[in-house]
Amino acid sequence: MKILADLHVHSIASGHAYSTVEEIARAAADKGLEMVALTDHGPAMPGGPHEYYFGNLRILPHRLHGVEILQGVEANVMDEKGSLDLQAVYLKRLDIILAGFHSICMKPGSRESNTAAMVSALQNPYVDIIVHPGNPDYPIDAGEVVRQAKRAGKALEINNSSFLVRRGSRETCFEIAKFVRQYGTWVSISSDAHFSSSVGEVSTALQLALDAGIPENCILNLSAARVTSFLASRGRKRFAGGERELHE
Ligand SMILES: [Zn+2]
Ligand SMILES: [Zn+2]
Fold it and tell me: Whose CB has fewer CB within 10 Å in the chain, the N or C terminal residue?
């Protein structure tokens, strides 16, 4: 099994990542990927891009070196209400919205408050995927989060970089993965690459998903076609005929 769409990749615009859009697209093409999502950190991340960066993404070609390029963001969840650090006017224009916890933007709280913040983010109409929900710094009620993701028709990520940079992620990700299998929730298996050579590198996350018994039909980013139909069903303008707005 090969994951053909990497839905979590950072460019130099993130401030602590090291490859350009051109280099990312070239690396994705060389690895045989069909699709890559540019998901730079939201403006609240120190060194991250100004919101104008997200406003101007639309000038990029939709394909580079034969790879479909999604214009996205890894927005920061700022509070228990699931507020994001990018205004709706920008969120509306993007193809895909990732959201997650980063300690500089929202300090870890109790298990209850972390769960409430994640569930609120899942209910935020703009959010498509919750990134690294298995971060052990933010204990959550995994069963509740997976149930709510299923209910909202959204995806939870198994983040390949977590196994390198977020110690203890294996156990928490495995717990989430078992609930994903139980409830049949979407899962995104993505790299969180901060350098071009890591684009499409998802082998550890994929193995964990398979070990937990997650079936192929729950893996959102197995192919570009599957991602496209998901985003169309979410009302994303680029894939849904350009008319529908996301419901508030
Ligand atoms: Zn980063
Ligand atoms: Zn990231």
Answer: C
